Amino acid sequence: MLKNLWNDESGVILSAEIVLVATILVLGMIVGLVELQCAVVGELSDLGDAFGNLYQSYQTSSITSLKNRGGVKAATRGARYRDRPDECDCNRITVCQRSRGEK
To answer: What's this model's pTM, rounded to 2 decimal places?
Structure first.
């Protein structure tokens, strides 16, 4: 009986087949993860470009409140900030090379 069990090969997967299947699965996963990385980097680059294109300058005018008998009760100074583009604003950084004509 033990000899019959030892010689029975029905349903046996050889180790070479397991290695081949595992290699194909790992290569497929690597390619899929690279494509996922390219998609995520592209979307985050678009988001960074959108933030870089926001116009962030502002200006507030001064306000002065006078007393009934004259004189200044309270005053605020105006404020101004002018947003100048940074050196790296809206630079297209792409990790994955795209084919010509594809955007």
So the answer is: 0.51
